Amino acid sequence: MVALLTFSFVSAQNDWSLKINKEGIKVFTRTAKDSKINILKVECELESTLSQLVAVILDIKSANRWQYKTENFALIKQVSPAEFYYYAESLFPWPASNRDYVSHVTVKQNPQTKKVFIDAINVPDMVPIKPNKVRIVNSFGNWTITPINKNLIGVEYTLQVDPAGSLPAPIINAFLTTGPFETFKKLKTQITLAPYASAVFPFIIN
Q1: Is the dihedral of CA 139, 60, 188, 150 positive or negative?
Q2: Which phi and psi (to 5°) does residue 53 adopt?
Q3: DSSP reduced 3-state for 144
Q4: DSSP H or E stretch at residue 183
Q5: Which of 19, 141, 163, 203 is the right S-S partner for 120, CB 3.0 to 4.6 Å?
Q6: d(CA 71, CA 190)
Q7: What single DSSP character describes residue 13?
Q8: Rounded CA separation 94/26 (Å)
Q9: Phi-psi region of 159 (alpha: psi -120 to 50; beta: other; left: phi over 0)
Q10: Which is nearest to 135 in space by CA: 101, 186, 177, 183?
Q11: pLDDT of residue 191
């Protein structure tokens, strides 16, 4: 998942174009109002509790195991159990430079519907610019996690990101869906690991 720009995701459902539909994962794109880079949406169902998925997302030290071509995750500041800042680096093929970013993550739940909302907003100036890296300054990601039954959840993940630098928008858009699909494939495995199955949070009602 803004320098501090907030992107609007208000749009009719039929604006989304389905690009991938396999292995229980759907990846959509649509054009953005404020950018030449398309917006992404992923939808899937996971055999998981709400706390289980939240535990995976909050486990920054293990995020490189499931987030596609992303490494060097580092927790910068833990504000509370449900709010933190982290740094990460996205790997780009040569000759492009790798991108890095800082995200501010917050977790909230609607106590009536039990839906969980996780926002990841870019905070580009929180750490110094690093040599040979291109700093992402415009990015917003959002998870909406909906309980279906005791051990099944529906997940909708939306992302708008501008990777900055000189890469042409048509090239970026052409490869935009690969990362999210591969990420969610690995997430399906990661979420089954023992440490997450027993996760409990005081701010999450399952």
Answers
A1: negative
A2: -70, -40
A3: strand
A4: helix 178-190
A5: 141
A6: 16
A7: G
A8: 29
A9: beta
A10: 101
A11: 96
Dump pLDDT digits (tens) for 28-78.
Answer: 999 988 888 999 999 999 999 999 999 999 999 999 999 999 999 999 999
Quick check: helix, strand or coil at residue 23?
Answer: coil
For residues 21 and 26, what is the distance between their CA atoms, to the nearest angstrom? 4
Beta-carbon contacts of residue 165 (< 8 Å; ≥ 6 apart): 96, 97, 99, 134
Which one has a higher pLDDT value, 157 or 5? 157
Query: CA-to-CA distance for 66 and 171, rounded, in angstroms?
Result: 24
The amino acid that residue 147 corresponds to is P
pTM score over 0.85? yes
**What's the rounded Cα separation, in Å, for the pair 119 and 139?**
11
Contact yes or no for 82/108 (Cβ under 8 A) = yes
Angle CA(161)–CA(121)–CA(76) in degrees, nearest 5? 115
The gap from C-alpha 78 to its chain's centroid, in whole angstroms, comes to: 18
Burial of 32 (0-12, 13-18, 19+ CB in 10 A): middle
Residue owning tokens 């490189």:
64
